[in-house]
Amino acid sequence: MKTLLRQDYTLHRDTGKRDLRRAAVCSYIFLLILIVSLFVFLLLVIGRVKRLESEVEELSKVVDAVRVLDADVINAIIGFEEDEFENDDSETDQPHEDLAENLSDYMDNYYANSNDSEETPRDTREYESPFNLTKIMRESRAKRNIVAATQDGVIINSESYAQKKASNATRRYTLKGHSVTAYPGKSSSIGSPWPIYPHSYHTTPKYGNSGRHSTKAPPLVYSRPSRVMHHEKPKKRPRVVKKISWKSGNTYSDMNDDTTTYAPGFTIVRDGRRYRQRNSNLEILDEGHPRTGRIKPLPSVHYNGDTTKYVVGEHTNYLGNGHLRHHQATFVDWKASNWVDSLGMDSHFSLDQGFVTIQESGLYFVYSQIYYLDEHDTTGYRVFKNDQMILQCTLTIHSVERKLKGNTCFTAGVEHFSEGDRLSLADITPGRLSLFEKGKSFFGLVKLGDIKIK
């Protein structure tokens, strides 16, 4: 019994020592990590302080340089203000008393100072003749505005004495009467006297004064020959018209022959109610084919996405409002348009589990569109003729966060189909969400012609 107690005591003592030793080791490790962290932080702080000290020194140098520059600028401004400038012009201004001179002396001095060459000023008496005045005006018009002056001291400017054109002359003075009496005016030293018209002007206070009949002379009308080249209209070629004697259905019977030669190599052919020109060198394949009056419709079909068989809650791949997830690769949820059955187009095509079987051989135009509303960046589908891919449409839209992105993927092409060939649409990656509703996801075929591949 004592041996067991001693062993138990020894075991507990050894266990306590081990726990104490383990706690001491953990404490030492924690203190070591703390000391290293503090040392690293201290190094970072010291480096940052040194960097700030260097930046402060650079800023202080820049401030000192700016202060020196400001001092130099201030000294230069002060020196500039204290400088004295002397006037180098030896000529002195004329006293103000010269402004009081009479007009004739002013004109003499004006012409004497304005001439480039050393010429003697002209005598103002030569302006007494209207001929001399006109000659001098013509010579000096390009040099100055003032042309001459009369003996009375009136300045003559190079302005036109004609009446200025007014944009609206209803409120300006207008001449009354086609003929007026002119009285001799005051004698002048140049030209003939100006006539004076008594009561020759009046003002019109308002617009549209229809009560008063204006006696203003009609304005002159200037005309000139037209510079537009006039060409005679080309003569039209005579039309060939045939008289129709009787009509039966969609055919006509003419009094003359069915065709009339119009030009070498061409023939005017009657076609119903129209006459058209046809090249006689071309081979006509359907000549003599009777017109039925109706156009045979081309075999065509159109399928829309259909989700009427799905119910929200019962089908896990249906989210409502046409939002459908396709588990298989081939799209199978299609429904033909209403006009396919009414026009009898279902006899040319048959749909079974997403595969359309073509009943007539020929060249067909194929088109398709899938409206994807999925969160993936890449979506797309392929169009298969039997097991051969003939068309493909792929969309790649990158987005930072994962969210639904809606885009339509459309493709179309022309392909030859034989009788019994099958057409189908398959998703590139199964499980993509798309909107299978009318006008959003669809495909169809239109026959272009009967062509056989040899």
Helix content: 10-25%
Reported CATH architecture of the domain at 300-449: Sandwich
Number of H- or I-type helical stretches: 4
Q: Globular, elongated, flat, extended or rod-shaped: what is the shape?
A: flat
CATH class descriptor name of the domain at 300-449: Mainly Beta
Q: Roughly what fraction of the amino acids lie in strands?
A: 25-35%
CATH topology of the domain at 300-449: Jelly Rolls
Biggest sheet, open or closed, and with what strands and sense?
5 strands, antiparallel
Average pLDDT, rounded to a whole number, is 72
Rg over CA atoms, rounded to whole Å, is 55 Å
How far the N terminus sits from the C terminus, by CA atoms, comes to: 111 Å
Order of helix and strand elements from N to C terminus: HHHEEEEEEEEEEEEEHEEEEEEEEE
* Class from secondary-structure proportions: alpha+beta
- The low-confidence runs, each spanning 5 or more residues with pLDDT under 50, are 177-182, 200-204, 241-263, 281-290
* Total beta strand runs: 22
Largest sheet strand order: 13-10-22-16-19
Concise description?
The protein is an alpha+beta fold and 454 residues long.
Key terms:
five-stranded antiparallel beta sheet; alpha+beta; 4 helices; 454 residues; flat
What do these coordinates show?
Belongs to the tumor necrosis factor family. The chain is an alpha+beta fold. Among the domains are: 244-279, no CATH class; 300-449, Jelly Rolls. The chain is 24% helix and 26% strand. It contains four helices and 22 strands. It has helices at residues 2-82, 103-114, 130-140, 338-342; strands at residues 146-149, 155-157, 174-175, 201-202, 244-248, 251-254, 259-263, 266-271, 274-279, 300-305, 318-320, 323-325, 334-336, 349-352, 355-358, 362-374, 378-385, 388-396, 405-417, 422-427, 433-435, 442-449. The strands form seven sheets. Strands 13-10-22-16-19 form a five-stranded antiparallel β-sheet. The protein is flat, with a radius of gyration of 55 Å. Residues 177-182, 200-204, 241-263 and 281-290 have low confidence and may be disordered.
